[in-house]
Hints:
Layout: H1 18-71, E1 76-77, E2 83-84, E3 89-91, E4 98-101, E5 105-106, E6 118-122, E7 137-140, E8 151-153, E9 158-161, E10 167-170, E11 176-179, E12 186-191, E13 195-197, E14 211-213, E15 215-218, E16 231-235, E17 239-240, E18 243-245, E19 254-264, E20 269-275, E21 282-287, E22 292-295, E23 303-314, E24 317-326, E25 334-340, E26 347-348, E27 354-363, E28 379-381, E29 385-389, E30 397-405, E31 415-424, E32 431-439, E33 442-451, E34 454-458, E35 462-463, E36 469-476, E37 480-485, E38 488-494, E39 505-510, E40 517-525, H2 531-537
Parallel strand pairs: 1-3
Antiparallel strand pairs: 2-5, 3-4, 4-6, 7-40, 8-29, 9-10, 11-12, 12-40, 13-28, 14-18, 15-16, 16-27, 17-26, 18-25, 19-24, 19-27, 20-21, 20-25, 21-22, 23-24, 29-39, 30-36, 30-40, 31-32, 31-39, 32-33, 33-34, 33-35, 36-37, 37-38
Amino acid sequence: MTYLPIPTAPPTPNSSDPQAFFDAQYEARLNWDRDALAPGVNEARDLINAAAPQAAAAAAAAQAAAASAISTAGVAEWSPSAVYAVDARARDPVDRQVYVRMAAGSSPTAPRLDAPVWRMAGLVDVESGLPSRAPDLLLDFAGGASTALLACVRASGAECFGPDGLAVVAAPDVPCIDYDPSTGQRLGLWAQQDQTNVLLHSRDYSQAAWTRSGATAALTGGQAPDGSAAWVLTEDSASGWHGFTQVTGAASNTDVVYWVELRARERSQALLHLGNGLASGIYAWVDLTSGTVTTPPADTVDFSGTWAEIKPLGRGWYRCVIGARKGAVNTVCQPHLMIVSGAANVYAGDGVSGLEVGRSQMSYARFAGHYIATGAAQATRAADQITLALPSRSGAIALGIDATYYSRGPSSSAGESDHISAMATSAPYNGPILRTVADPGGQYMDAYAYVAGTVVIDGPDQPVTAGARVRRLVTMGSALATYTSAGRIVSQAVIPSQPELPSARVLRIGGTGRMSMHVHQVAVWYSDLPPRQAAAWTAL
């Protein structure tokens, strides 16, 4: 751009003629002002001219993006005269949501009003639709919420980790707040199902219950994850495998998980083995330097759905895990820990090298639960059954959870668990349930909602990945029940009118189920959250 130069001071004409003098002064001042302001005027004009196309382009792009998001490619507006195939999609003209056809046929009624025939496909609107009001009850266990209001029934003590990274044991009937031992992060309420440690003297490897092969065990290590002295497992100089094992009871057609706490010393690799007394045992190789499972187990004729993991416990410690479904080829299911040298678990030892070992556990379960201390007998950790009385209210209610589940591997049997619910304490039942479902194919979550004892929504089973965080919400309004997960609507159903009489509900966490979880948040609304808002709350 080109700017006019700023002029010098206005000239002074001949003052012999007063009128001419003033006229000249006035004209000179006008010229001065015009020339002095010209650069700013020119610059403003240039900026406006340059910005106008950009603003117009940005507005057009935003309008096109919004139109694209709202139109959802391939989705047509609903028409009362159209005939729809199964799984056909249509947009409702009022709520602007996309619906999926459940059965072929015409649709003279708008999808939002014809729930038995249509289900909502999910969010497509540009707006975020966050809930317009805070929950009436928010238990933010990961954020520091107290458990003082909770009633807990658990016949045994229960281990969890404290903020210092060391394991602690909560007394019977006391809820557990758990921390990540490697980072100190508060994970929330730890709700574990019942589990039995079948290994005897599970942190004393000098006992006769343990058979040591090519190795010695001495209580000369550093600080173990529970704060006590760790064991040092040292290989001898013989040629063979170096480690320990324990003979357990018969096991067939059941889920099994074995874990041991390890820290590197002269050796930094180990092998976990589950044997059946025949040639079809399973192995998992772990590296205590990189903190990885270097070789996962493979299925055999007597072990299926095999898996392994390694979890950091801080200060160089790891919980090393192997699990599977044990078949019925043979009833033996015996755990082994072997020191690894290089890439071999059978080798000639040097007589001085070894590993540090903490606690050990083997359970017939599908998750690696927190440690259960044993002595001369097996020990059981009872399930958490946690409750909180809710105010007596009538009408709508919404229940949301934010949690991480840990069950994994195929189940040996089918079963269900009401892990989180906000239900009336006696018939007729009224309220939402978020539960877990186990069957031989895997582990799932779904949702139920009851109104006066009648099931009004039964959400589809959704697979759960062990260690993955999930957010779910069930809302029961005056006419519609909605189940949402991970920012999307899973299923909806028309419901009868809510009972007008106040209903005394109880929030329940845990119970006799098949999963364990960290509950980060529980939220309850005594209102009918619109589907879009309910889905938005569950977005991760």
